[in-house]
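Possible regression after last week's pipeline update?

I re-ran a chain I had predicted before the update to compare outputs. Posting the input and the new output here so someone can diff against the archived version. Not blocking, just want to make sure nothing changed silently.
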Amino acid sequence: MKLYEAIKTIVQEFGKEIVTNAKVINVFSDYNAFEESKTFKIILKNLIAEGYMDQLMYVRDWANSQDHIINNFIAATSFNEANASYVINCLAYGLGYTQTVPAYSQCAPTQQTGTLSTPNYNTRAQSSSKNAPTTVQGIKLDKTESQFDNLSETAQRKYKEAAESYLESIVEFKSDFEKDLGIKLQTTVGYDGSRVTPRFEITGKIKIKYDYSIKFFIILYDSSNRVIANDYIYVGTKRKAFEVCESHIYSSDFHKVCNIKRIVIYWEEN
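New output (post-update):
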């Protein structure tokens, strides 16, 4: 079920107020609302935790409120603009504020398979979030590796969870991997204080012909859209129908999690 369909159904069954309750995330899961992307679950949790759901309950004119709410949320959290905008627009649709059905695409329409081009970004959102601290679940992701090491075990765990939630929310794909390669790709991003670890769970055999392997490239950008780190991994060397692989990018490259504003993933034939 699409996210906007699930929200509309849940609101019709339980009333608008349910979206302000943290337990609604479990209801969304029951309705398979996160089939498009599990990132939406993370964004919804933060919308509730940061009080944006309460704001949405009192909207009178969505056309005039839309940009303000979306831009403020992105500035406060640094979530990927496309993902955050889609989730908030789904809420507006489900709450009956608009009849426009939201559209979600995993990759940008101007991007081409196997190439990394400079994408077009909404400069308004960039400028509003450029200098803002990245905060997720009330935690500022501004710790260096040594500062993370000095945290208590409980604080480290909470920081790690917040960092991983944020990092997974800013992943972007340069192509439709399922369409182009014939695979299903499940991506997670780990963090342990010293490194960021993108992990790829690949289901299905790669359908295109290749000699040795496919290369997955991982590019990290800062708030000025500059590359601050990159890595690649070889995929498909054993030509199996299921594969899990990962990459490691160390904190010496990005210094703090809050310095990472985008994680871009694309592929090339090796």
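Follow-up from reviewer: compared with the archived run. Residues 219 and 230 are 4 Å apart (CA to CA). Marking as no regression found.
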